[in-house]
Amino acid sequence: MTSTMPRTDAPTSELVDRLAHPGDDEVAAMDAWWRANNYLTVGQIYLMANPLLREPLSSDHIKPRLLGHWGTSPGLSFVYTHASRLIQQTGQEMIYLAGPGHGGPALVAAGYLEGTYSEIYPDVSQDEDGIRRLFRQFSAPGGIPSHVSVTTPGSIHEGGELGYVLVHAFGAVMDNPDLVALAVVGDGEAETGPLEGSWKGISFLNPARDGAVLPVLHLNGAKIAGPTVLGRKDPAEVRSLLEGHGYQVIEVEGADLPGMHHRFAEALARAWGAIKAIQAGARGGDWDGTRPRWPLIVLRTPKGWTGPDVVDGVQVQGTWRAHQVPLSGVKDDADHRRLLEEWLRSYGPAELFDDAGRPTELVRRANPDGDLRMSATPHANGGLLTRDLDLPDFRKYATDVPSPATVRAESTRKLGEMMRDVYRTNPALFRLFCPDETNSNRLGAVFEATDRGFAERVSDADVSLSRDGRVMEVLSEHNCHGWLEGYTLTGRHGWFATYEAFAMVSASQTIQHSKWLQEADELPWRAKVPSLNVLLTSTAWRNDHNGFSHQGPGLIQNVITTRGNIGRVYLPPDANCLMSVADHCFRSRSYVNLVVIDKQPQLQWLTMDQAIEHCARGAGVWPWAGTDDGSADPDIVLACAGDVVTMETVAAASILRERLPHFRTRVVNVVDLMTLPRRKDHPHGMDETLFNELFTDHVDVVFAFHGYPGAIHQLVHGRPDADRFRVRGFIEEGTTTTPFDMVVRNRASRYHLVMDALNNARRTPPGASALKEWCMAQLARHEAYVVEHLEDMPEVRDWVLGDWATEA
Ligand SMILES: Cc1ncc(C[n+]2csc(CCOP(=O)(O)OP(=O)(O)O)c2C)c(N)n1
Question: Which of 483, 631, 716, 756 is positioned for an S-S bond with 171, CB 3.0–4.6 A?
């Protein structure tokens, strides 16, 4: 489907004209398809039997629980059938994204009428029995959700949590030159922060090498329980708003038929013609580089169009009352039931479904063929189109580590170098998405391969900024995250790199995407897509100039809490481990990989070979760091996960080694957090034997963790004697201060860990109380020192490991 060379042909004015003026037979086919869709939508909400009204409707035919959303559905299917006609006439590859995903029945019905649904789910056949199943399964136990869910063919967008339709659409068309993403935006949805920010997508789109997004802002005027802002605004203000974002606004309004068919066909033809003209200009060399004024359709129709007008004397159509189930009493109220039957029959089912229950030829005539059907497009099952990245050998980016903890390096720089080379060898298959922090996150090597992509004015003062760039920097975590989702769901690869604290801005998207992948994993027809790789840098432990706003390791908590096997959390302690983890993430499919590592110069621990072995296991003993020779149980296990706390742990072990040489410590480092839970709880979980080899089943463990301490307790739940884990981690202490003061404030410093080790070990070694006093004195010294000198004590700041580590 995806061609290497974008099509450059502009449509002729005759073609656009023909599209703009459908013949009567075309309108008849679209209208029949739309009526059939509306019929199936209403049927899904209400009926569990008598699907084609072969007999008068009775209470027994009505579902006991009436669930679903009618109000948005007729608008969604109206747009859909017009897009199908455009596809038929032009061969345009299109993907359809329903922002108001609660209009799920309309999209399920679309796939059903196009035949795709029965191809994927043969039980839901194109006959009367199949229609009955289609109706019964909707919003039912063991059935399908009421939203445009993962189970809906043709969808990459659930639309459950509103606000992301445009970000998904823009991500889908990046490096996808022949694709048009038709994105219906609900006017309620348009009130959300993410949606409001996402109009800016066109400021990053390059018409020469990207596809196009055609937003249809559907102003049906109401949300669940009230009016919408844009629905009630003076149309001139709506126009100004959208024009201000850079769109050319095409408006269609009404409820009259067939007039609306004619007006919408014309609007769509104009919009498509404009898109093609923009692309042809850019691709044919006739482009001065200014950002095109992309078309956008504002569609005003009544909410619940074609549904019950007045119920029990109250206006329903055109109001918020049409949002969900406009006739709620049909099971018991004969009058409501009569209205429902009239409503269903108003679509003329006998003309739409033949005797066997199959859509009639008139209806089917409105369907495009094969993969051009929007419910069948491979773009919405992106794994089918996914090509493996041509990856460099990550060992090339090794950091030389002659012995542990002697060399300092900015680990993420190496990842930047690898990304640079991935860009070079996979120019249209890989993108980095980052809220304005690529350089700050030390990933700036990518700019040796490509610029930041930007479609607005570029000035002489700008650096690495051009229309052809593929590093996506927009100061919106929502846009970055959503674009990457759209990009990967349509089969391409990428990373989202962000400050750790502000990953919480888009945390809900991470959760929603995890849910999507989790559900997709259970559907054999959904091919696996590239993983969503999230790099969290500028972590909680390094504040420097930032105050108590830049700390928030909460995304770890979110990801470990997602159900099933989608979430992975990696805490590489150094650059070589980061490279090994990153290589794995680049290659993986259908996961959410969270990688957490700071960007500041940090001590390096392992050679590349050691790192590879360590990361393959996910967790392991660092024998050189402790004093446990394996001949007996250690007195304490000092475990760590996360770069900064690893340094504190190794330093604590070093203090214990020097001051209490007979106290046996074992240092365990965890890179892959999901090795901690039991295997039955996560596929990466260590088996019990390995877990006991690392942590024993009875020795106390002092665990220094990058994130909130509760995460470790959650993960080791069910492990032998889990209460013995004493966890130090981020406890919401932060301010503008030194790196070491951060670990002190959060009671996770080397001195705290030493005291924890002594307090928790079952054997109190001679000299323990003197050592604890020394630790307290060091903490007091630190407190005075940082205030006086504004930096950390030299023994902390310049700490490296003793020579014995090399000798060990
Ligand atoms: C982020 C988010 N907040 C709240 C909701 C609950 N909700 C579901 S539908 C809806 C109204 C949507 O209105 P609109 O986008 O205009 O869609 P339509 O009127 O076409 O149904 C709301 C608030 C949600 N799904 N997502």
Answer: 483
